[in-house]
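Re: that chain you flagged

S.,

Sorry for the slow reply, it's been a week of failed gels. I finally had a moment to sit down with the sequence you sent. For the record, here it is as I used it:
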Amino acid sequence: MNDSETRTDTPPKKNKNRRNLVAEVSGRLREFIAGGDLQPGDKLPSEAGLTREYNVSRTVVREAIASLRADGLVDVRHGVGVFVREPTEPASVFKPVDRARISSMIEVLELRSAIEIEAAGLAAERRSPAQEEILFERFDDLNRLIETNEPTVAADMALHLAVADATNNPRFREFLTLMGEHLIPRSALPESVENTAPENYMAQIQSEHRAIIQAISERDIAGAREAMRAHLKGSQDRYRRLIRGT
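Prediction finished late last night. Pasting the structure tokens below so you have them in one place:
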């Protein structure tokens, strides 16, 4: 980003504080990187370009880029621009899920409940139109994988991370990302067990996802919390039945 670029500061959007704007811009760029729209080595739009695209001030753009840089997602080359970095595998601070112990999966879901129920409520309160759109896109991505009988764990995780992003508090994504693959305990299920799941297994999960997203879309804070609570409690019951082969 060149200091010589024409200054095109734009007043921040009304009714939003700077922290929320920074989270919105950085969240959108994170989605582009995670979704592959921005590949390693790609150059981000200029500071002036991002200012115009998101209708925010240069200060917001600089803080959003600083957030991406702090998380190791981009490199800033002074006088040249901002470039997407090669992804690095973060070291997980969580012990692996013990696939032989139902209680190990329940422990993960209880921890997620403590975090994600509140995240759903905040997302309903704070989500932007762009974040609402991303939620429905992640839901549709998961639907397509279910219809073609492809693995769904990564897409399921992406949907829950999109809810975290919609809180406009980056700490929610950071925490869930630390859990890594443990975020979706069925990733630890033996393939033979997962393949014996009832036909309506993923349909039920998607029904619960739909309720969460719909409540967030309608800015129904209490409804979003209850929908997330029902989803995670339902997951606990499903894992018990899957492991026991009932």
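What I noticed first: The chain has ten helices and two strands.

Talk soon,
D.
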